[in-house]
Design brief:
The strands form 2 sheets. An 8-stranded mixed β-sheet has the order 2-1-3-4-15-9-10-13, sandwiched between helices. A 7-stranded mixed β-sheet has the order 6-5-7-8-11-12-14. By secondary structure, it is of the alpha/beta class. The chain contains 7 helices and 15 strands. The longest helix is centred in the N-terminal third of the chain and has 11 residues. The two termini are 15 Å apart. It has a single domain, classed as Rossmann fold.
Length: 263
């Protein structure tokens, strides 16, 4: 749901084999913000069977799912988690049992994706800066790494992430805005981007301090101005166009969180 394109969304949909994919939106991190839900339907309804799950609104609107959330979510091709407050979102999911349902969906092979909070939630640990200074939070742990988003847009996150890694946080991945990490099971399969010259980073502690290794992202557009440089390395499997195996996950960090909340 990028405001100036749909390259990352199109990439997510390409991972399904469905002619008209079933896509369910979880706007929990934004408090089920109406305008975020509307943007989701505008983007996905023309080509997908779109729905959403609201945990905070009694008047849920067209397309909302209220009964048998497990059956509905497990029947999706894609579950799209919106941006916002990852701590509040995870708490609400636990209260309603959605965290366990999402684990089942992952094991079943449903494509899980999302920007910002919708990226942080899948990892063992993450850096969140929704309110106040950046801090470490615990995610669902489907991916045994740490995660940091908005790496270029909010420079203070880089320094704090390095500090947390040095202090014992799991090694992990940082991403610039409009860059997505594509995991197959727990293995990073590919890094993709909706803008040229963008990167992800592998960040880990070493005996000499924190090491940051730049990973070149495959630009999804038609421009020949591809990203990369002499110091960049490609993620494994970058030359493969599609991935149909179970437990796929796309975790973009584009600035798609609802306004004015941010992410």
């Amino acid at each position: 749901m990028e405001r100036d394109g749909s390259l990352l969304d199109d990439y997510v949909l390409s991972l399904t084999d469905a002619a008209r994919p079933r896509v369910c939106f979880l706007p929990t991190a934004s408090g089920d913000a109406d305008h975020y839900v509307v943007r989701f339907y505008r983007r996905f309804s023309p080509s997908c069977d779109a729905s959403h799950v609201s945990l905070f609104r009694r008047d849920q609107g067209t397309g909302a799912v209220e009964e048998d959330l497990a059956a509905h979510l497990l029947g999706q091709d894609v579950i799209y988690v919106g941006g916002g407050n990852v701590v509040s979102m995870l708490g609400a999911w636990r209260a309603h049992g959605l965290d366990e349902i999402l684990r089942q969906a992952w094991r079943k092979g449903v494509v899980l994706c999302g920007p910002s909070a919708g990226s942080l939630c899948w990892f063992e640990e993450a850096l969140s800066a929704f309110h106040g200074d950046p801090r470490a939070v615990r995610g669902m742990g489907l991916l045994p790494y740490s995660n940091c988003v908005h790496y270029d847009a909010e420079p203070q996150r880089r320094a704090e992430y390095h500090s947390l890694i040095a202090g014992g946080m799991r090694a992990g991945f940082a991403v610039e805005d409009r860059v997505a990490l594509h995991f197959r099971r727990t293995r990073l399969k590919r890094v993709v981007s909706s803008r040229p010259g963008a990167y992800a980073y592998r960040v880990q502690a070493t005996a000499d301090g924190v090491r940051e290794r730049r990973l070149r992202a495959d630009y999804l557009g038609d421009s020949e101005d591809a990203s990369g440089g002499p110091t960049a390395e490609r993620a494994p499997g970058h030359g493969r166009r599609r991935a149909r195996a179970a437990r796929r996950m796309i975790v973009p960090a584009q600035t798609a969180a609802p306004r004015p909340a941010g992410a």
